[in-house]
Every structure is written in structure tokens, then in C-alpha cells.
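Re: the 190-residue chain
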Amino acid sequence: MKNKIRLSLSLLALTLVPLCGTFAQTQTPPGCSSIALWTGFYTDTQACSPGDTIHYGVTVANDRVYNPIDCDVTGLAVTITTPDYVTHAVQLTRTTLTSGQWDYYSNAVSYVVSASDVRQDGTVKASSLTTDSQSSTNFQSVNAKVILPVPAPVLIPAITQLQTNVTVLQTNYANLTASIAALKKANRLK
């Protein structure tokens, strides 16, 4: 029984050693010990209305400054999910970043806001997901406040009331002016 266990452990060790060597060989540059995948997700507006176009941008970086212990980030992929829950793949100029390298995509995805996209908190939300071949992931989201137009049924009575108030003020002003003039004339007669 002991021989079977030893044989099993030996076979397991022989299987794992080449795998460990392969992983160590794929790390570049040699001696690196960490991955510093970083993603920033942006929108060109903080407020919008249905029918407006929002432009989403993304920055992908392997750290923002050179660090000798950072391994290269390879196999990069970025997706942006728009407020309608549709996922869009971002066309990257490169899928490998060495330490300190970064790329900015200012208009990665454009999206026209729909009234059906507005969440209960009055915003539209989009998100980005960045992955690489080393199983690193970054998730970011941004919100834009939605400014809804005032419905006409609410707006028309308000305008009508405002016009009535202006007419009343004009009439009161005319009456006050006439009263002041009458008082001045009465004071001259005395």
C-alpha cells in the first residue's frame, strides 16, 4: 500500500514540475512578481436627457509608472456594457502592455440614451470589464444623471398661472400709481 502511495505522489510530482516550469517561463520580464492591471472608465457627460449621445472612454494600464517587479500584461480584452445591457468589445491597439505602459480610448463606445434606460435613481449606468490572459480582472461603472423634460400637461398650466399673475401685478401697479398720483394732487389742493 505504501508503495502505491509513493508511486502516486511521484507521478503527481512529475506532472506538476513541468507545469510550474512552464508558468515561470511565461512570466516576462524574468524575475517579475506581480501584475498591476489598472482600468479607468469615463463618460463625456455627467448629465443627459433621452435622445442625447453619451461617449464612453477607457484607459487600460499595466501600472501607471514603471515598476521592475510588474510582469507584462498579455491577452488584454476590454468590454463596455451600455445602459441597455448590450456588451461591446473595445478595439484595442495592443493587447500586451509592459510595466508603465497604458492606452487611452477616448470614444470607445457611443450610446444614445433612451427613456427606458433610466434607473429608479434617475441615472443611466454603464460598466467596463477588463481581463487578461493571467486571469486578472477590473470592473468599473459610471453613472450619468438623467434630466427629463418637463411634461407639457404640467408646463402649460404653470405658464397660464404665471401669465395671470403678471396681469394681476400689472393691474395692481397701475392702480397703485393712480392712487399715488391722486394723493399727490390732493396734497397740492390743501
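The chain has two domains: 34-146, 150-190.
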